[in-house]
Amino acid sequence: MAMTGPQRIPGAVFDLFFGTGRYSGSDMEVNCGVIHTTEGPTLYDYQDGASAPTVTSVPDFKNKRLVHHQHFDVDESARALVNKPGGVQTNTANVFQWELVGTCDPATHSKWTRQGIAHIYWPEPPDWAVRDVAALMRWLNQQHGIPLTGRAEWMAYPASYGNSRVRMSFAEWTSFKGWCGHQHVPENDHGDPGALPFARILAVAKGGTPPQEVPDMDATQAKQLAEVYKVLVPYMGWQYKGAGKTDAWGLLNNLTAQVAAQTAAIKALAGQLGDDVDTATVVAAVEKAIKDAVVKVSVDVTGPTNS
Predict the structure, then answer these.
(1) What is the Cα 37 distance to its own chain's centre?
(2) Does residue 58 sit in the same domain as residue 123?
(3) Strands 65-70 and 55-60: what pairing?
């Protein structure tokens, strides 16, 4: 079978190219693509190519881009799928195989986050990763005709593992064109790439506006933000048991005391009204009522101290 169209991905790296070695594949014409996740945070050599996909995309976090490491020509069969005897062809079924470095497993994502390991959690990829995945999909559509369509459901991992409802039948796989995940391929049990936001990626691949990254603040902007924050702090009062002016407990306590004191003062004043009222007596009664009310509220609202 002839291999038509450009076989090397623009800008790709060929440090782990296996297409001319022991594990070189068969010629074909790609018309579908399978997306995997590596479930590891870095690139590896796939046992010197024994289980390699067509390409592995590695995140470059500093420059906010994906680096594509190409392992086989586009129209050459790769080796990342299980192919059991007596069923259907998988690796040689005109399929472009794509590994995305990172994870689709929420448990792994949580563990790596706790450990401080930089990674992409592919159910929630950053905008720049969506942009670069979409760009390669668009190139493969324009140069090799892989349709910008795909499976409707991309099931979250781990429910996607095994014989789930999204796994294709032999007949569905044989006639499939477009994009799917490892979780969709028959004779396989892996559940990657989980809940990949395929509709979001596809919209960008079809010419939608690529998501824009919010630029990082420069030093001047950071200093300005810090100055604004210092001004706002006295008014950001809703902390529990905070310190100083930011203590919501203290603010509530003071407000309650003020209301109670005013109520007591009004009662005291009303009790002193009359034609023969002495002003000094009224003032003294009001001051005493306020003092008593504030002390009482402090005791009632604050309550006993808990150790």
Answers:
(1) 15
(2) yes
(3) antiparallel
- Residue whose C-alpha is closest to residue 252's, from 291, 290, 297: 297
pLDDT value, residue 263: 66
Q: Is the peptide bond before 193 cis (omega within 30 degrees of 0)?
A: yes
Q: H helices within 86-218, ranges in order? A: 106-115, 127-144, 170-174, 198-205
Position 274 confidence tier, pLDDT thresholds 50, 70, 90: low
Residue linked to tokens 């996909």: 53
| List of residues 6+ apart from 274 with CB closer than 8 A | none
pLDDT, position 290: 62
pTM for the model stands at 0.70
pLDDT tens readout for residues 17-63? 999 999 999 999 999 999 999 999 999 999 999 999 999 999 999 99
Q: How deeply is 62 buried, as exposed, middle or buried, from its count of CB atoms within 10 A (0-12, 13-18, 19+)?
A: exposed
**265 part of a folded domain:** yes
**257 found inside a domain:** yes
Whole-angstrom distance, CA of residue 139 vs CA of residue 141: 5
